[in-house]
Amino acid sequence: MKTMLRPGQTPFYGDSRHTHGIARSGCFNTREVQELTMYGNTMQRLFDGMLEPENDEEVRFIADCQTSDESSLYSVRLWKKYLNTLEKLKQHHSFSRSERYNKPELFSDGYFKEAVG
Question: Name one Pfam family in it (predicted).
């Protein structure tokens, strides 16, 4: 990636929700993993406001991350893709019954009572 973003001081392996790292998450291709590993700490610190921008591209990165519009910067699109994977990891699917099926009004017609009971 041709960028003016400075590389991170340490490799970026992702959030703790990526238990085996971003490389094994299945969400990113090899190129994206390499770029996130190299620039991810800088992107995260710029996004969180913990790092001051040093050049125009870093200023634009911060501005584009704060909007919901599509950016022409590849680094912004990659960072938003990373953030979207974190949102998907928050979703939990289970085979257990949810609380909504325990409401009595759902069982009033007898159909669910026979199917569940």
Answer: DUF413
